[in-house]
Amino acid sequence: MIEILDDYISLTAADVSYIIRAGQDRIISVYWGPAIKLEDAVSIDFAERWSSFDPEEEAYRQEYDVYNGRSFLTPCVYLDSPSDRLNYMEFSRLETTSSEIKLYYDICPSGLLLEVRYGIYSNGVVWRKASVSASEKTGLVSFYSGSACFHSYDQMSAIYTAGRWSGEWQVKSHDIVPGCFQLGSRQGFTSETFNPSVMIADKNCSETHGMVYSLMLAYSGNWEIKIEHTLTGITRLVAGLSSFDNSIVVNKGETVSTPLMYLAYTDKGYGEMSRLLHDFENANVIRKRPYCPVLYNSWEATGFNVTAAGQKELACKAAEIGCELFVVDDGWFGQRNSDHAGLGDWYVNPEKFPAGLDDLIRYVEKLGMKFGIWVEPESVNPDSDLYRTHPDWIYRSAYAEPLQCRNQYLLNLCLPEVREYILSWMRRLLSRHNISYIKWDMNRNMSDPDSAFFDDDSRIIWKQHADALYSLWETITEEFPDVYFESCAGGGGRVDLGIMRYAHQFWTSDNTDAFDRLRIQYGCSLFYSPRAMMCWVTDNNSDSGRAVRALEYRFHSAMCGGLGIGADISRFSAQELEVCKTMIGRYKSVRHLISGGLLYRQGNPFTDNVVSFEYVSKDRKEAVIFTFLHSQNFGMPLPNIRFEGLCNDKRYKLDDGCAHYGSFLRSVGIPNKLKGDFASCMHHAELVECE
Predict the structure, then answer these.
(1) 231 CB-side CA count, 13 A
(2) How far apart, in whole angstroms, are the C-alpha atoms of residue 593 and residue 531?
(3) Angle formed by the axes of helices 574-596 and 551-558, nearest 10°
(4) Which of 186, 194, 195, 182 is nearest to 244 (CA)?
(5) Residue 648 near residue 629, CB atoms below 8 Å
(6) HSE on the CB side for 625, CA within 13 Å?
């Protein structure tokens, strides 16, 4: 609901209020938290100045501002103009509909028209974005999506994820103290290092109790989130495009927009915040599909040694254990026999597929599965026909050899001819073959953004590359709406709400060790829905010197998201294949809960010996819980397995046939019979409709 009283504006939904004031020269954050009446918000007084050395509190509460030399916090707009760097906002007009508000300000003397938009979803998630239109060509160094403020009376912490390849999504905490704390990426894409999402929580916040604010940025390029905390107790979140090495050119008559940012609040702890975000993502961001198909990927079994005969052998076994989608990974195209050559030459290798790709596809379909394939459209090997023909199609410096990462260069997506090349072979691949799934990979950072190949300032490359990427995804997904798409970037490198508009799922990490994945998936689930989180059963650590986890344990870990099989099942015994078949069958019976249910986390795999991940249907009629034991000392008692989220006064039937009231399952629970190290179990509870 949107209400307006004088120059005060309130967005309220799901017991959350977000209230601003549209002043003549600034937009002020008035209140963000549990729902209040707008007429009461008008009476909120801000603190008086402590001394003449301090600005008024409103200066710290600016929702959207332009640099004018009067504020000492991060401005949302900073012009790239040494002569006219000081600008001022002048209110122009307000437009409102039932679902959003638009505030317009003239930015003087630059002549820019600023539009700041707000909306709120039914579950209380607020969305924000801004746009500028130019009457004359204008350059911007900083152009953020916006800021959001709240008064933090007690000690608070920033909760975020950080990591590196194969160790993504590690949960970190940083005390909010006076000063500025910054997260971001300068790597040309979202990156594994930090994710564009953060929670600000009470210092003593838990999974079930405590005040939590969150911010998520929908962007897949260079980004920044700044957390500014003043000595007056104001915490200000600023998020948007990275200002590092950045230039945004707004041509005459052109409009340029920021990425969307999303804000959420709860006073019920991290668990409720995650459920709120998951519900929002499932309903409004992630591309829809009926369920997550169980897939088999051939990479670990074959590597680059892809042959039609070998893929058919794997497909037979994949179908026998219940897989629904068979995916051929890297090595099917060009002269791609290692990661040193062939990338960029997107034709089916005739030696590997003498009867053509369609022969394999028909074989897979006769087995009752759909067919998928791996691509990496954005990069090229120096040893490829594409690079030999078009060496000018990559990002390069005029003064040094371009940097190779993973034996490849990054294609310059800012060039129309490069985008057209990618579209042409993608269209050819998807229109000539019955392909139901694309795993879109990207395995290197962006480098060598030199000005030698641009008429203008090469700093425009960073944003133009992300815009070009989105245009490719938008075109392909619109032309082939029935194809499932997965976003993959070395594992966890391109996971954000921007790419989620086009992708059905994302690759969480290249690390598929079942124990490591508990931490990775826990961190990822703080912000992102299990519906989109791909998790595989593999032999990931078989050559690392670490013990291979029990097959059931590996399945239970991978069943906490979208289930995939990546192990070399050609080496599995008949008994192991039967375990796979049983576990896949159990997953199919509960995946509607994992995909669309409410996630309750119990315990923390970073610190606790026993953890559980429970998924409850929204109608509270059904639940499945996966429990994991790390290790056990002799005689060490284990806590009971408790179900959260069920109706206290309803009876639920468990796998063993026993029935208990929800209050019992929540407060007492059932015995935890796990033993040993790296043990796991799965329990299903279903409402007893008729006694």
Answers:
(1) 8
(2) 9
(3) 20
(4) 186
(5) no
(6) 27
Tell me how far apart the alpha carbons of residues 574 and 360 are, in angstroms, rounded to a whole number: 25
Strands (DSSP E) contained in 74-164 are: 77-79, 88-96, 100-108, 112-120, 126-133, 138-151, 156-162
The one catalytic residue in 510, 513, 516, 539 is 510
Residues ≥6 apart with Cβ < 8 Å to 489: 189, 190, 192, 441, 442, 443, 495, 507
Residue 291: pLDDT band with limits 50, 70, 90: confident
DSSP 8-class letter at 639 = P
Q: In terms of DSSP bridges, do strands 255-257 and 126-133 run parallel, antiparallel, or are they unpaired?
A: antiparallel
Q: Give the angle subtended at the CA of 58 by the CAs of 45 and 267, to the nearest 5°.
A: 65
Distance CA 615, CA 600 (A): 6
463-510 pLDDT tens trace: 999 999 999 999 999 999 999 999 999 888 999 999 999 999 999 999
Q: What is the pLDDT of residues 342-398, one digit of tens each?
A: 999 999 999 999 999 999 999 999 999 999 999 999 999 999 999 999 999 999 888
Burial class (CB in 10 A: 0-12, 13-18, 19+), 637: exposed
DSSP code string of 521-567 = HHHHHTTS-GGGEEEEE--TTTTTTSPPPPHHHHHHHHTTSEEEE-S
Q: Does the active-site annotation cover 441?
A: yes
Q: What is the rounded distance in angstroms from the CA atom of residue 300 to the CA atom of residue 545?
A: 17
- Contact (Cβ atoms closer than 8 angstroms) between residue 25 and residue 89: yes
Torsion of CA 65, 66, 67, 69, to 10 degrees: -70
CB atoms within 10 A of CB 467: 15
C-alpha pair distances (Å), 661 with each of 211, 223, 597, 666, 683: 30, 48, 20, 9, 15
Rounded to an integer, what distance in angstroms lies between the CA atom of residue 503 and that of residue 532?
A: 9
Matching residue, tokens 């957390």: 227
Residue-wise pLDDT tens digits, 649-667 = 999 999 999 999 999 999 9
Q: Decide if 531 contacts 282 (C-beta within 8 A).
A: yes
**Is 178 within 8 Å of 236 (Cβ atoms)?**
no
Q: How far apart, in whole angstroms, are the C-alpha atoms of residue 337 and residue 383?
A: 12
- Residue 17, φ and ψ in degrees, nearest 5: -120, 140
- Enter the tokens of residue 182: 């910054």
- pTM strictly above 0.90: yes
> Looking at 65, 330, 441, 539, which residue is catalytic?
441
Q: DSSP letter at 341?
A: B
* Residue 80 annotated in active site: no
Spell out a b/e string for 157-176, using b for 16 or more CB atoms within 10 Å of the CB, else e: bbbbbbbeebbbbbbeeeeb
SS3 5: strand
- Tell me the domains of the chain and their CATH numbers: 2-46+56-284 (2.70.98.60), 297-449+482-587 (3.20.20.70), 602-687 (2.60.40.1180)
**Contact status, residue 345 vs residue 385, Cβ threshold 8 Å:** yes
Are 88 and 107 contacting, i.e. CB atoms less than 8 angstroms apart? yes
- Cα 498 to Cα 224: distance, rounded to the nearest angstrom: 14
